[in-house]
Amino acid sequence: MRNAMYNETLRVQSHGAFGGSLLPDEGGVLTHCNAGALATCGYGTALGVIPAAVEQGKEFTSMPTRRGPFCKEHA
Fold first, then answer.
1. pTM for the full model?
2. Is residue 9 within 8 Å of 51, Cβ to Cβ?
3. Which pLDDT tens digit goes with each residue over 55-69?
4. Which H or E run includes 8?
5. Which of 65, 67, 68 is nearest to 31 (CA)?
6. Cα 14 vs. chain centroid, distance in angstroms?
């Protein structure tokens, strides 16, 4: 199990690094659904590009249009 989690973490970090490289050096990212750290061993798939881009020295604003479990009880 530990090996599977380690491999999953490496996989999603690799996806994040690739996605982060596609973002401009400055700008904004509009997000809708949370596919982040809670769902994928601590890094995130779709949202993994945001921390990866920051790690690459990029500066931008993240604009979430929907928040996860906090708002689901009010829907």
1. 0.70
2. no
3. 999 998 888 777 655
4. helix 2-22
5. 65
6. 12
Neighbouring CB atoms inside 10 A of 62's CB total 12
Tens-digit pLDDT profile for residues 3-19: 888 888 888 889 889 99
Element (H, E) at 62: strand 59-64
- The residue written with tokens 């994928």 in the block is 40
Residues facing residue 29 across a β-bridge:
62
Tokens of 9: 């973490």
Contact 32, 11 (CB under 8 A): no
Could you give the CA distance from residue 27 to residue 5 in angstroms, rounded to a whole number? Answer: 32
